[in-house]
Write a structure and sequence with these properties.
The protein contains 16 helices and eleven strands. It is of the alpha/beta class. It has three domains: 60 residues; 236 residues, Aspartate Aminotransferase, domain 2 (3-Layer(aba) Sandwich), CATH 3.40.640.10; 116 residues, Aspartate Aminotransferase, domain 1 (Alpha-Beta Complex). Strands 1-7-6-5-4-2-3 form a seven-stranded mixed beta sheet, sandwiched between helices. The protein has a four-stranded antiparallel beta sheet with strand order 8-9-11-10, covered by helices on one side. A hairpin with a 2-residue loop joins strand 8 and strand 9. The radius of gyration is 25 Å and the shape is globular. The chain starts with a helix and ends with a helix. It binds pyridoxal-5'-phosphate. The site of pyridoxal-5'-phosphate has 14 residues, from helix 7. It holds the Pfam family Pyridoxal_deC.
Length: 498
Amino acid sequence: MTSKRIDQLRGRSAPLEMTEDEFRSLGHDLVDRIAGFLGSVRERAVTPAEAPDAVRAALGAAKALPEHGAPAGELLENAAELLFDHSLLNGHPRFYGYITSSCAPIGILAELLAAAVNANAGAWKLSPMATEIEAQTIRWLAQFIGYPADCGGLLVSGGNMANLTCFLAARAAKTDWDVRTKGVAGGPPLLVYASRETHTWLQKAVDITGLGTDAIRWIDADRQQRMDLAALELQYTQDVAAGARPFLVVGSAGTVSTGAVDPLPALAAFCRERQLWFHVDGAYGAFAAGTPDAPPELAGLVLADSVAVDPHKWLYAPLEAGCALVRHPAALSDAFSYHPSYYSFGGEATNYFDIGPQNSRGFRALKVWLALQQAGAAQYREMIGDDIALARRLFELANEHPELEALSHNLSITTLRYVPRELRESTGSEPTEVELNRLNQELLARIESSGYAFCSNAVVDGRYALRFCIVNFRTATEDIEALPQWIADLGRQTQGEK
Ligand SMILES: *Cc1c(COP(=O)(O)O)cnc(C)c1O
């Protein structure tokens, strides 16, 4: 029996294999479909806004695992239709939700190419060119934001993982006991300082690494949502007096909610004096550092011990691509390597499994590397600057509109709310604020289900706001100019039907 099977495997042809011609023909067909999809994105609804049941019905979610195979062409055609017709299109020019960008078409092709070679970028030997391309990409990303190009770094899945990677580097560097062997129980309680506007990656990081969320000292933000330095100093002084071990301050280079930039140069000085690790979460805003209109404080990220950036946000890379940058490359191997530092895989080769949490790794760098070259740094800065300019324009237009109230504008995030004319005079009073919060919450639901545009929400100074974030090279002036009146009209309808 076994030997018969072995005989049949001469000139093996497995069910998953494709001939060169089959692959070419299916590939051309799929690329044609994708081109049509990209070409029609502006005419499509931003989201079909279907209920989960409808999506499951379209999929045939109850279908059991097929025991027998099916033709690849039909499967690909069906998958493309399902996805094109039942997805939220973050590549739509009027998608302004969260911080999710339109992806560069060259990134789509890069993903195909990366999968074709299927390099395992965990070890140099398994991925010689992919590893070198990643190393070059890291240098270019550092250069783009003004960070020292001889820093250490690696690509990870996104901002959360980039921040966590830097967090672990900080933890290993700033404990005077062997925290990797003894754990956090081996020394005094470790403390981290961050503003209340910091992204939830920080809770996950202290949880995963055993510090626990009580290790976070939440520092109040000022009215512009930036960390309050005086509050930081006060808290720090109390903690040191109580015998705790502060080791890390996190500054945000663009908060996730309103895009506020913490006073990074002052935070850097604070950390330098006290020998604390200074980490900057630049997942959203770091790439704006080189643009002429960026807030000057953003330049302070060059002083950080580590920076998390997110190419799948403002570099318009398709998901997933985050990146951890660490000033001293050894801080990464000190945090992750299980080889003594004198042990090296053949001299100069980088083995990414040794400086980060992953073992086998995909080739995330290719899409970033290609897009950086396609546009070039100068035009990248221009695209980012254009997103900022459009967000500012939206703020101005909302400010001039009799039924809208512009609440904040930082980087490419503008927040605003609908205020009916009759409530205009009484804003700030409690009943009116409660009423406005509820009205704008309902308005957001209507915007989402409209299919015309998509935004998310923020709470600005206690007020429920509609939040528009432009990390979208497809958004044009006319898209932004049409928004205020459209929002006001929808606001009036929402109010009328209550
Ligand atoms: C988006 C974001 C994150 C998380 O990044 P992911 O890529 O979603 O994991 C962290 N911090 C900030 C400031 C962000 O904007």
